[in-house]
Amino acid sequence: MDAIRRAAGWSAALSLALVAVIVASAGIGPVPVPAETVVKAVLEAVAVPSLAGGDLGWHHPFSFSLRESHRAIVMAVRLPRILLGALVGFALAAAGTVMQGFFRNPMADPSIVGVSSGAAVGAVASIVAPALLPFGLGLETAAFVGALVTAFVVYAVATEGGRTPVATLLLAGVAIQTFLGAVTSFMLLHSGQSMREVVYWLMGHLDDAGWGDFVPVAGVPLLPLFVLVCFGVLLAYARDLNVLLLGEEEAAGLGIEVERTKRLLLAVSAVITGAAVAVSGVIGFVGLIVPHVLRLVVGPDHRVLLPTASVAGAAFLVAADTVARSGAQELPVGIVTAAVGAPFFLFLLRNRRVHEL
Predict the structure, then answer these.
(1) pLDDT tens per residue across span 328-350
(2) Beta-strand relationship, 220-221 and 216-217
(3) What's residue 347's pLDDT?
(4) Residue ranges covered by each domain of the chain
């Protein structure tokens, strides 16, 4: 119960910080928008069910006198990008937290089993040679499929006799990442006029975001629901992840189905990472740095660390993307996260704040 209370308290505080970051970000840009106007524009979009004449419908309880240009800037241009950034940051931080615990390695991140490299191959192939892809896969679908296929191949290579040693899995991931990096480089050399688009995707970006990324099917927004379901599964296994830190033999002695738990954690982490990378490109350091920082603050208990790191990852990526689009020339957000993350990680190393898990 103490862990639940701590998780709830920290998550609530970080969620308030995330809301503040979102409101501030929505007001920043070539046309500044006051925070009060941002809040009013969002409230105007809120719809609640109501009965009118005996028929169930939707009612907008809030109405304000706002400049139409401000309303359009917030709701049509900035907010979709901000919310997609929050979703991607949330997913990458969650996967990074689990991967660091899974491998008991502070250098682990969401791409450690080649998921990002596989997504890159799929995405670059869809840009450079779309005719070669089966079923006419689009960029995001090709990236997602590439990520999942790579994770499956790494797992299959590392598994022998029904067991998947963590060290073998790590080495297989490194080897396949290297090979897929070569494949991506080969396609880049033959990308011709598509090179700029390829390089931009590989740097990570959110500038193509729109409400289409949240298109609901049967009234359900699929991408947020997909990420939250994956997160729910990971959170349900947070206690088992704590036990795995003791070692596989000790975990088995305490009643954990080690191989089954490892397969599930690996699969769900790969899926949630693949979904994030498919819509944003390769964004580094979110899943590496954010879990470290939160581990220093809230401790190593994954029941507390996983939800808090995920919310912090959402806030971090929204803030980074705000910086990326606020200069004279917009930058891919992956450049900003790397520029911030790498020096900060070196600072942690210098101060001996990065430890073996």
Answers:
(1) 788 899 999 999 888 887 877 77
(2) antiparallel
(3) 79
(4) 79-350
Tally of CA atoms within 13 A in the half-sphere of 114 that contains its CB: 32
> CA quadruple 202, 206, 208, 211: dihedral positive or negative?
positive
Question: If you search the block for the tokens 């003791």, which residue do you land on?
Answer: 246
DSSP string, 161-204: TTB--HHHHHHHHHHHHHHHHHHHHHHHHT-GGGHHHHHHHHH-
Q: And the tokens for 95?
A: 């996967």
User: What pLDDT is stored for residue 109 in this prediction?
Assistant: 85
CA angle 271, 154, 256 (to 5 degrees): 70
Are 224 and 87 in contact by the 8 Å Cβ rule? The answer is: yes
From residue 24, alpha-carbon distances to 9, 37, 147 in Å are: 23, 11, 33
Q: Quick: pLDDT tens for 118-168.
A: 999 999 999 998 877 776 678 888 899 999 999 999 999 999 888 888 889
Distance CA 5, CA 203 (A): 39
CATH topology of domain 79-350: ABC transporter involved in vitamin B12 uptake, BtuC (1.10.3470)
